[in-house]
Amino acid sequence: GQAIIVKNIDKIYNTATSRGIPTLDFRPNTPDKVLINYAHSYKSLGEGAAGLADKIIKGKKPGDLPFEEPKGVVFTINLKIAEKLGITVPDAILPQADKVIR
After folding, report:
1. Whole-prediction pTM value?
2. For residue 86, which phi and psi values (nearest 5 degrees)?
């Protein structure tokens, strides 16, 4: 079964936000639920997996392939959550975000 935190993550984030606690997550499927999200994109993960599969199909042994760090990290700031928390995100930070949820 799933870990208790994973099973209740929406409740945890909603409770934190309602109590004024900023939230951060590193998973790609949560930017709409947290103040800050810093995660790999599913697109980049899929492209990396496809590249590895291509090498294996062409004869490389999986054990001989080097470890590769995923590419394509996406930094998201959720201004809707910031507003609920009463947090003003400095204008200097917004241009650094890959995505801003308004």
Report:
1. 0.76
2. 75, 25
